[in-house]
Amino acid sequence: MEYQIGADSIRLPKPVYIIETASVVGKKEGEGPIGDCFDMICDDDRFGADSWEKAESEMQKEALTMALGKAGLTSDAIRYIFAGDLLGQTIASSFGLMSFERPLFGLYGACSTIGEALSLASMTVAAGYAETVAALTSSHFAGAERQFRFPIEYANQRPLCSTWTVTGSGAFLLGTKKTNAKITEVTTGKIMDMGVRDAQNMGAAMAPAAAALIMNHMKDFERTQEDYDAVITGDLGKVGREILLELCDISGYPIDKCHFDCGMQIFDHFDQHTCAGGSGCGCSATTMASYFLPRIKAGKWKRVLFVPTGALLSPVSFNEGENVPGIAHGVVIEHEG
Fold it and tell me: Who is most buried in 75, 134, 157, 218, counting CB within 10 A?
């Protein structure tokens, strides 16, 4: 097939445009180095709700509502919604998006979910099954800690390799309407299990999957880092980034000249005490929507490989002694001149 490229990639039969985006974050994220870029910062991390989980649903609802408003559209314009989060059975998405009354694909790729959502959403539009779709994700620091690690009230000391789950939601509207940013290619990742069992070291669990995705993408399209203005990973943080750069270099596909990581951009890890950086479904979604995408729209960057990364664990798998596999999903975003 002419659109299947190499072993793991596709070139979309026609570009899919990023019509509009919106980003909603909590207080800590708003105090970070890119705080001025977000559309909405809430000083109350409960977002007016009576639980952290309900707060996450409110973030998704607000992010999609804001993206629609910025685009001058109503929810009726959306053919499909592709959304996910970190909570069990993706309840942040289902409860948060219920009121839009649009067909929903609930997704789970851990912190890589926005990459999965953008991939499937753009494929749907490019294939002619929809004119306008939404892709969004969210995460909440307190909800993630309660589900995956330990109650915050324990006041455990966080290891330096740990990352801080971002409280935020990022929404993307994709469609056929031309804008100055478009998705042109997709590379889908494989599950990678390198034996990591430390639930506090997500960077080490995800870095091999990110490296494999980037290497396979470069092979499929016969490119090097010189063909990109930026290769942007989701939330590897400081520890994961070091592993990624070494793995890519060993594989013969170095990215040291153009690599950025959303988890290292969203927080000042030293002053904000976030250890290795940021993580969570909301990390890469909000950082791409608010901080990186404007560079592409403005033409400062012509081609970017966006690689959100995820650690595939659950409380059940962790308590049963299973490893923490990783996965990554890649989309190429280009400037429309």
Answer: 134
For CA atoms 269, 275, 276, 280, give the dihedral sign: negative
Tokens (6 digits) for 298:
């403005």
Which of 150, 175, 200 is a domain's end point? 175
Instruction: Give residue-wise pLDDT tens across range 245-263.
Output: 999 999 999 999 999 999 9
Residue 287 parent element (H or E): helix 281-287
Structure tokens at 56: 């996450």
> Same domain, yes or no, for 24 and 145?
yes
Number of continuous H segments (helices) and E segments (strands) in the chain: 11, 15
**Which DSSP string corresponds to 221-263?**
HT--GGG-SEEEESS-HHHHHHHHHHHHHHHT---TTTEEEHH
Domain of residue 250, residue span: 181-335
pTM: 0.95
Sign of the dihedral through C-alpha 273, 270, 170, 125: negative
pLDDT digits (tens, 9 = 90+) for 208-236: 999 999 999 999 999 999 999 999 999 99
Q: How many domains does the chain have?
A: 2
Measure the N-to-C terminal CA separation of the chain; round to a whole number of Å. 28
Which residue in 317, 329, 325, 310 sits closest to 194, CA to CA?
325
Q: In the numeric block, which tokens belong to residue 140?
A: 């909440």
Rounded-to-5 percentages of helix, strand, coil across the chain: 40, 25, 35
The CA distance from 213 to 232, in Å, is 12
